[in-house]
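Hi team, as promised in this morning's meeting, here are the two structures we talked about. I've kept the exact order from the run log so nobody has to guess. The first one is mostly here for context; it's the second one we should focus on when we meet again. Sequence first, then the predicted C-alpha cells.
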Amino acid sequence: MSICSYGGCGVKQQDPDLVSIIIPTFNRADLLVQAIDSARVQTWTSIQIIVVDDGSTDDTRARVAEMPDVCYVYQKNAGQAAARNTGLRYAEGPFICSLDSDDLWHPEFLERCITAMRELNADLGFANWVSQNQEGIRYPSYFENTNEWYLVPEAQLANWRFIDSTTSRAMFNDACIAPSSAFVIRREVLQTGWTDTFRVADDWCMLLDCVMLRDTTIAFTMRPLWVKRISGDNICDERDIRELLPHFYVHDYRLIAKRFAAHQSAREKALWRGRLAISHIKLAKWEFRKKLYFSSASLLIKGLWDLLITRVLAPDMARSAWELILLKKSTGLRLLEQDVQMSRPVLVHEE
C-alpha cells in the first residue's frame, strides 16, 4: 500500500501545460536528489514531481522531505513497474514522464519535447541521450546504433523528425528504442501503464501498448537532451548476456508475444516467435554445457517449435532466425530489416 507523506500530491486545477514527472527509486538517495534537481530546473515550469519510494532503507525519505515542492509516496518494495504505476495514480498532468532516479535531464528537455509534440501533432516525444559510466566517461547511446532512425527525414521543426503510426509500430516492435527517461507521453496514449509481470522489459511493453493498441505518432530528436548514468545496479545496462537471456530474451519475450497476439499481423507474430526460437535454442546450448540435459532438451524442443511456427507465418523470417542461431547471436531479428536496405550517414552531435 502506498502512503503519500507530504508534498504536492493534492488535486490541482486542470493545467493543459502540466507535466507529471514520476521518479521511481530504491536506495539511491544521492543520485535521486540529483535527478530531482534536474527536473526542478527545467525551463518548462509547469511540472509536478512525484517520487515513488519503492521500499528504500536508506535516507531517501529524509532527503526528499527537504523538498516541499515534491510529492513523496512510499510503498513496500514491489519493483519499478509497480512504482511507476503508483506514481501514475497521483499524476495530474496531461503529459506524463518517468525519470529514472539515476538519470539527468538537460534543463531544456521538457520544453523541447513538448514544443515538438505540439507543433508536429505527435502523441509521444523522445530525445537521444549520452550514457555515462561510474568513472564519468560518456559515450553515445545505443539509440544511435539503430540504423533506421537515420532514414526518417527531418521535419519542418529544426532538429526534429516525425514518425507516422505505421512506422512507429514497426520500429517499436523491432527494438526498445529508448529507456523511460527519454519520453514525454500524452496521458491518453498510456493504455495500461506499466506491467509488473516483466522482469526487465516493462518499459518496452508500455511502448508497445502505445503503438499496438492505438495509432500513435512520434516526434524525436537525435540531439542528446539527457544523460543516462550506468550506476552498477541498472536492470538492463551492462548486464551479462548470460544473466539477461532467461529473463529478458525468454521470459519477457514470451509475455510480449502472448500479450499482443490478438493485435499482431502474421509477420509480427513471426518476429516474436523467431526471437523466442533463437533465445530458447541458445539457452538450451548453455544448459547442455552445464550438463543439465533435461532442461536443455526441453528448451531445444520449445525453440524448434517456435522456429516451425515462424516458418509457417513467414518463411523468410524463419530463415533469418536460423542464420542468427548459426551465428550464435541472441538478438538481431527485426521487421524492417526484412524489407528495407538500411544506410547510415555520419551523425554530427550538436552541442
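And here is the second protein, the one for discussion:
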Amino acid sequence: MLDIKLIRDNYELVRENLAKRGDQDVLNLIEVIKENDFEWREVTKVVSGKRAERNSIAKQIAELRKNGEDASQLIEQTDALKNEIQTLENREDDLRKAIDRNIMSVPNILHESVPAGADETANEEIRRVGDIPSFDFELLSHGELAEKLGLADFDRATRIAGTGFNYLFDDLAYLDLALMKYAVDFMRSKGYRLVEPPFMMRREPYTGVTDLGDFESVMYKIEGEDLYLIATSEHPMAAMYMDEIIDEDTLPLRFVGISPCFRREIGAHGVDTKGLFRMHQFNKVEQFIFCTPETSWQLHEELLENVEQMYQGLELPYRIVNVCTGDIGTLAAKKYDLELWFPRQNKYGEVASCSNCTDYQARRLNIRCGKQGGDKRIAHTLNNTAIATSRTMVAILENYQNKDGTVTVPKALRKYMGDKEVIGR
C-alpha cells in the first residue's frame, strides 16, 4: 500500500501518476482518503487540546480539594469533557479505519518508464529472442499429441476433478519434474536459496501480500478454516518476514520457491481448449527478493535476466514486453512479461511476469529493514517466475514437435530425463 504521508504531502503528483491507469474509481478513492486524512488530523488536534484542557482542570480540582474548597463545578466540566473526548475519539478511530481500509485498495505508484495504454495491446515490445520454427506438416495441438502418445488423460481428470485438471504419465510427468529441477539448479547456481513454502495461508498474511478484493475470486478457500490454497509460492515467500525487521547488512535476500499453484479462474480459452495451457493446478518455480530501496531497480533487471537465460537454455523463442498502465495490476511499479512463442496459437503468450513492487507489498506486510541501532524503513520486494511448467511444456510439445509425432527433448533437460533425447519413441 502507499504511505499516507506520500498522499498527504504530494497529492497532485500521486493523483497524476494514478491517473495513468485510467481508473476513475481509484482517483475518487484517493480524494476520499485525502479528505478523511485532513479531517482525522483536525480531529486529532482537537482531541489533543481537549485532553490538555481536561488535565488542566484535573489539577485545579486537586488544588481545590487540597484546600477544602468546592470543586463540583469543575467536576461537571470534566464529565462533559470526558463525553466530548469520547465522541471525538470514536470519530478519530472511524476515520483511521476508513483511511487504512481505503488505502489498501489504491495501486502502487508507476515507474516513469511504464507505457500508457488501456490493455495488453499497448504493452511495449522490448526484444525478441530465438527463431520462430516452421513446419512442413500439420502441427498437432499439445493436448492431442499428449493423448496420442499416452502421456496425458484429460477426460478422466475432468470426471474426477472437473476441467482444468489432468493426469500426466511417464515422460510428460518426467518433463514436468525435469523443468522444475532445471530451474532450481539454475537459480541455486545464482545464489538463490531454495524454499518449499506452506501451500496454504491464513487470510491476514494474504491480505498483506495482495489485494484480496481483486484476487479472492481466483483462490480456493478451505471450508471452515482460515486458510487459502496458495496461487503461487510468491505469496508465502512475501509473507515470510511479516511484522519483522530485516538486518540491512543481510540484504538482498534471494529466494527460489517451488510449489504447486491453485487457481479457480483459468480465463478464456485459446485455439486449443483441451490441455495444459490454462489449469486450476500447476507447478511453478518462482524467484523472490527482499532488498533495500536503493537496489531494487538493479535487481529487477537481474530477475529478468535470470528467466531469459533459462529460456535461452531451453532454446525456445520468446519476446520481452514492458507491461502498460492498464495491464500492470495493483502491486507492481513496473512489470516485464516474458512471452513464449506458441505455434498452434500463432502468437506469443505470457509465461513469466517480472515485477518490482517497490515498498508497496512490504508496507502492507509491515516488513522493514535497517542497521542495528539505526533508523528503520520499509523494504522493497520483487518477484518473477522462473519456470511455470505447464505452459513451458505446451511450448516444448509444439516447438519441438516432429513429423513422426514424437517430440525432441531440449538439450538442457536431457540430463534430468535419463539422457532421453526424444519423447514418444
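Starting points for discussion:
DSSP finds 13 helices and 17 strands in the chain.
The first helix runs from residue 4 to 9.
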